[in-house]
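Quick one from the shared queue. A colleague (R.T.) flagged Sterol regulatory element-binding protein ECM22 as missing a structural entry in our internal table.

Convert sequence to C-alpha cells.
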Amino acid sequence: MLSSDQATQHEPQLPAPQEQILRHFQPQLDELHQQHQLSPPRLNAEAATALLWLIEKPKPCHSIRPHKKTRTGCYKCKARRVKCDEARPTCGSCKLRKAKCVYPVPAGSSSTLPFTTASALDASPSVSTASYPLVRGVSPIGSSSSSSATFTGEHTLVLNAHPFFTQPLWHPSNIDAADMKLLWFYTTSTSSSFSVTGPGNPMDDLLKGRVVQVAFETPFLMDALFSLAYLHMHNLNQKYEPSRALGYRARFLQGYRRAVETAASETYVAVLASALFLTVLSSQAFREENSQELYILDWMVVWRGIGIIVDQMGVENMLDTDMYPLFERPAIDLGASTTSIPNHLLFMVSSIRPDDPDYPNIPIYLDTLKYLGSLYMNLKEGFSPVMNLRIISWFTFLPRHFISLAQQRQPRALVILAYYAAFLKLIKSIWWLKGVGERSLNDLCNYLGSEWALLLFVPQAARAVDDELDLARVILQDPNWVSARPSHLQLDSCSPITLVDDAGKRLRWNRSERKVIVLDSSETVIWNQ
C-alpha cells in the first residue's frame, strides 16, 4: 500500500463529487466494462470509486481513428447513440424525454474546480443530490472556519491511495477541522455502537458507508452524526464543546421534524437513519439527575417512532432504500415464549375483575407478556450478542395500545416495564445504555410504591445487584443458573438476526414483485397497530 506522501504524488486530485465523476468518466468505465466483463455495465458509486485510480493511470498510446467524432454532445445522447443538438442547459432530446442533461467537463478544467450543487445537479441549495465517496484512513482536515449546516459552494475531493473505503473522504469547504474530527470519530468509533455483533456486518457497513454519504447530501443527518459523536465523547469523558454540541442537536431536531412533516421521498433514507439515532441521543436523559421521573415512558415512544416513520413511508418503500439492515431483529417464537412468562405476571392479568376499569385491557397485557416471555426464554439459553439485541429491540415489537396504557401510567403496564428494565440492566457493553436499566428500575419501583410491592420483588432485587450472572439469576429466579455459552462468543452471531414482522416471524423482501414474504409459515405479515 502506498504511504500518504506517495499517494499525494501519484494520485490525481479529482474535482467533483462522485456523481459528476461517474458522468465524466462514463466512456472510460464503459471501456473497462468491455475489458473486464464488469456487471452491471453502469457502475454503481462504490465500484466506480474503486476503479478511479485505474482509470487515471497513464495508458498506452493508440493510433487515432481516421474519422472525426464529436465529443461535445451530452452523455444521454451518447449513451442512446443519437445526435445531440447541444442546446444548453438541456438539449432537445433530454428535454423531450424529461431526462437530466449532463455535458462532459471541458478539457483543461482545474483540478479543484468549484462545484455548486444547485447549478450542476439541479439540486436545492440545502440538499445536494451528489454522491460522496468514502475511503479508509482519512485524517481530520479543515479548510474553512464555517460550520454551516448547508453544504454548498466549493468542494474539494481528496483521494487516499487505497481504493477500498470505510471512512468519509469527501470534504465540503465549509466543514471545518472540528467537524472533520467529529466525523472521523463517528466513523471509527460511534458507528459501531449500534451493532451488538461487532464490525463487519451489514448494519455496521451501512452506518460507516451509506449513512455518511447521505449525511453529506442531507444537512440534518450530518448534524445528527455530529451530535452522536459529541454524546459519545461526553460519555467517554473526553473533551468536547457543549455549546457546539447543543447547536448541532438543535439543528438536527429542527431539520428532522421538517423532513418528517414533508415526507419527501428524497429524504427517506435520512429520516430512517435519524429515527434510529434519536433513540441514542434521547438516552442521555437517563444519566442526568434532573431529568423527569419515569423517563422510560418517553423513551419507549421514541422507539415506537421508528415504526410510525416506516408506516408513513410504507414498508415497501423502506425496503427499497436498502436501509432495512438497520432495523433487522431476532426472530421470536411467540407460541413457545408463552410458557416462559412468569406465573405471578400471568396471575396479575388474569385476576383482573370485570368491574375493574382495566378489564378491557387484558388482551393487550397478555400480548405484551408474550414478548416479555421471549426474553425469559432466550436468556435461559445463555448470554450472547443476539440476546442483547432482543433486549434493545423489545420496544419495537410492542402493541401500540400497551404504549398508550403505559403513558397513562396504568400500574399493571408499569409493572411489566419494571421487569423489562431488569433486562436492560444486563447490557454492560453498550455505552448509550449505561444507566438506563438502573434509572428505570428506581423510577418504576418508587412510583408504584408499596401497593404493588408483592409483584415487584424481582425488580426490587434487581436494583440491589450489578454482576451480570447474579442479575440473570435474579431475573430467572434460579440461584444455580449458569450461562450455556460464553457471553463473548461471536461465531455465527448474526445468523438469527434478520427482517421480521411484529409477530417475530422471519420475512424476505422480493424486490422484483415488491412483496414481503413470510418465511416461517404461510401466514400474512403482522404489524402491530
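Residues 1-53+105-327 form one domain.
The chain has two domains: 1-53+105-327, 330-498.
Added to the table.
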